Amino acid sequence: MRSKEGEKKRAYLTLEELRQLPEDTNTYKTVGKEFILEPKSVLLNEQEQKFNDSESAIASMQTSKEYLEKQIGELENNIKELLQQDPGLARQILSMTVQ
């Protein structure tokens, strides 16, 4: 999520800078070590797409995170209930050593 948030912020800042430029300004896109002349509109569209893609990826990841956190909570409760129902099992688990 942090990676996508950083990507979103870079796209937003780039968009803001591009929007301030006059329409007839020469704009360049980096491709590897080279710079290619591109119309301002193409670069604006690419940055808007990156921004939108990042936003949807972040939303999707947030939903997954919330779901997984809920699952963890449910599993913890299930384990607690199991250990409370069978104290012998709890003693067995505590007596086990990790090698």
Automatic annotation (TrEMBL):
One of its GO terms (biological process) is response to cold. It holds the Pfam family Prefoldin_2. InterPro entries: PFD_beta-like, Prefoldin. Keywords: Chaperone, Coiled coil. Signal peptide: none annotated. Residues 58-85 form a coiled coil. The keyword Coiled coil applies. GO terms for cellular component: cytoplasm; prefoldin complex. One of its GO terms (molecular function) is unfolded protein binding. The keyword Coiled coil applies. Belongs to the prefoldin subunit beta family. This is Prefoldin subunit 1.
